[in-house]
Design a protein that fits this description.
Layout (H helix, E strand, L loop, with lengths): L1 H7 L10 H5 L6 E11 L6 E10 L8 E7 H14 L27 H16 L1
Antiparallel strand pairs: 1-2, 2-3
Length: 129
C-alpha cells in the first residue's frame, strides 16, 4: 500500500525553461497600466485624470487592447461598487490627501508632480489587485 500511495503522490519533474519559453508571449495575460496623468482646468476647476490601458489575449475580451481616461473619483466609484456587490476583500485606494488641499500651501498640493506620480502608482496597484 505504501508503494502505491508514494507513486500517486510522486512529484512531476519540472520542465526546463528555454529562452523561447522565457521571452514568448504568455499563454494568457491581462495587463492593466495606469499612465500619462494630465491635469486639466484652472484654479478651483482643476482635476487630474489618468490613462488606464488594458492589454490581453484572453478570449472573453472582444478588444485585445483598449485605453480610457479616468479620474480618481472613478476609481472610488469602482471600489464602492465592488465592495457593495461582492464578497471579496477589495484593496484600498491611495489616500484622499485632504491636507494637500488646504489653502496657503507652499506647493501645488494635489497637483504637485510628485503627489500625482505617487497617486498614479497607488491606482495602478489597486486596479491590478
Amino acid at each position: 500500500m505504501s508503494e502505491t500511495s508514494s507513486e500517486a503522490t510522486k512529484r512531476i519533474p519540472p520542465k526546463k525553461q528555454t529562452l523561447d519559453d522565457a521571452y514568448a508571449v504568455p499563454a494568457n495575460f491581462l495587463e492593466i497600466d495606469v499612465i500619462n496623468p494630465v491635469t486639466h482646468g484652472v484654479d478651483k476647476k482643476r482635476y487630474t485624470d489618468y490613462e488606464v490601458r488594458m492589454r490581453t489575449n484572453l478570449p472573453v475580451f472582444k478588444l485585445k487592447e483598449t485605453s480610457v481616461r479616468r479620474r480618481y473619483s472613478d476609481f472610488e466609484w469602482l471600489r464602492n461598487e465592488l465592495e457593495r456587490d461582492s464578497k471579496i476583500v477589495v484593496p484600498p485606494l491611495p489616500g484622499k490627501a485632504w491636507k494637500r488641499q488646504l489653502p496657503f500651501r507652499g506647493d501645488d498640493g494635489i497637483f504637485d508632480d510628485d503627489f500625482i506620480e505617487e497617486r498614479r502608482k497607488g491606482l495602478e496597484i489597486f486596479i491590478n489587485k
